[in-house]
Amino acid sequence: MDFSTSLALIAPELVLSLSGLALLLVAAWAGDRAARTISVLACMALGAAFALCLPVVNGGLAGADRIAFDGQFRADAFASLAKLMIYAASLAALVLAPAFLERIRSMRAEYPVLVLFSAVGMSIMVSATDLLTLYIGLEMQSLAAYVLASFVRDDNRSAEAGLKYFVLGSLASGILLFGMSLTYGFSGSTAFDAIGVALGGDLSTGALFGLVFVMAGLAFKISAVPFHMWTPDVYEGAPMPVTAFFASAPKVAAIALLTRVLMEAFGSQVDSWRQIVVFLALASIVVGALGAIGQDNVKRLLAYSSINNVGFILIGLAVASSAGTSAMLVYLSIYVPMTIAGFVAVLMLRNAAGEPIERIADLAGLSRVRPAVAWCLMIVMFSLAGIPPMFGFWGKFVVFQAAVQADMVVLAAVGIAASVIGAFYYLKIVKVMFFDEPSGAVVSGVGERGDRSLGTLLALSTLMISPFGFLATGWLGAVADRAAASLLLLA
Length: 491
What we know:
- Helix 4 packs antiparallel against helix 11 and helix 5 runs parallel beside helix 12.
- This protein is mostly helical.
- The protein is built from 21 helices and two strands.
- The mean pLDDT is 89.
- It is 74% helix and 1% strand.
- The protein has a two-stranded antiparallel sheet.
- The chain has one domain.
- It catalyses: a quinone + NADH + 5 H(+)(in) = a quinol + NAD(+) + 4 H(+)(out).
- Its EC number is 7.1.1.-.
């Protein structure tokens, strides 16, 4: 394959990279006064990259003609579907930022540029078919994320979140690098397909250690238990738009990357890694549910909720089949708008001083003060809990269905039982909003006349996870099936 064809396959990444570089120059020359303009242009760049991925997803494109740069990059339907979710979540993070950062005078021109470069890194992650490409994408995403976590320099919590994320992220990168070096040493290659062939027989002890360390490094990125310790603190300390970004886009990228690594590089050793994935899934479901019960901060609660949801997603990965991968992609497609809607709803709430509301107790009586936001947040909570007729129920249903069809009935049963625990704290928030007396913390009229884009984003994301979302089940299932098939085509 010639160089020009490879460049055509990385068109979305080229659009974002060139846009990021150009906007970085604009930020250097124009300064922070151009932050809004740069954000709009960054949104346009993400929209263009989104449009470039749509034909690949709709057509289910896969095969050897989707491989670029001598097998280091695959622009197949699986990667493109993950990119659509990443770009949509990144765009939401750009829309959320001005309403929050301008109020505290921290909106700077670097924010949209960092989001763009992070999106480029995540794009490379989901298309990587080589350990070197994997690490380049992962580090590009992580370096931008470390800065975003500590973006509000005057806030001690934000600085602490950035430091914790950097230290623990560096540790995870070291673990991943060690696993990659072991895998290379025992397989003789860094390419996923060559690794799969070299490890096709009995797995040696050294190669098994390599597999374990690679999974441990990637488990940190998806905040799966027991590598979740950073998540509540970073989510609480980071600015709200950044937290919404962390809970959605990087999660999709890391899960897609983990899936590609296990199904392609270690696809012949399913029995070796399935038990690890099953443990990560069940531990994340239980710890995420139990850890959220005692939380009084909304952002920390949503952090444990994301850990809980990762557990359900990993059930689809544990199935290790096209059906399981498809179910996992369906769940992710529903999880992203659920997460965005939750953070947007909380971001729209202000007290009399115009400060954001974060304590759950402050949501008391919200239905009487901000009824529209309360009803949207109720739909989010019901959807996260998997209560029909909300669309979040469908995500859990397809994952459990894939597990049952793969004769993993015990795993599905334990997951269903553990999901009941999570329903407790979701319903607790609904009870506080609709049945408790107003706390007086949320003031009507404060924040209501802010950026209309927040209300539009909340309405759209809530509509997607409402019962109307079931109208898209047929299309979403077909798209996920084609994406899953494209992943396994050359595996």
